[in-house]
């Protein structure tokens, strides 16, 4: 365990991103739910605005923690190697996509209400999550932000697998992590307190921001 909780992890990550402090073009985007407390600390340290970018993992039927891919705003969809290794029917895949799209829409409405997303065109977007296992969700986030015409995309996480970093370095402009262990196993193992972040906590942090 390297971090006491997500807030401590966010402070550690912010130190690695200090070069962006005070830059007016920077926007910090947290991936709900667990990435938002981390992103909150980063945004505070960098003196940057905070928003959310809702993406949803596409879990393998019966083993939902196994990512078949992910979806993001604007119809973005990425797939992993899982469906090739363990084939899933097109019908089952589309059912997962439909369910997660409904949840993505619900969360965007819940977290942001009527407030419009921050404009990203020509800006530096720092995308933050609490950890990167496969990198699928963050991959979808990067593609979504790229479509919003961000000038530069920086991916940040307290901990990530070697495979996730390799994947994201190919699509983002920069990847910044505090730890990239050879033996990754799971994000939660790197936290003393990895309790689930609630919707209320996400809303509270966004309101404070």
From TrEMBL:
CDD domains assigned: PRTases_typeI (cd06223)
Keyword Glycosyltransferase among UniProt keywords: yes
Keywords: Glycosyltransferase, Transferase
GO MF annotations in UniProt: glycosyltransferase activity
Domain Phosphoribosyltransferase stretches: 11-164
InterPro entries the UniProt entry points to: PRTase-like, PRTase_dom
Name listed for the protein in its UniProt record: Phosphoribosyltransferase
Protein species of origin: Variovorax defluvii
Species lineage: Bacteria, Pseudomonadati, Pseudomonadota, Betaproteobacteria, Burkholderiales
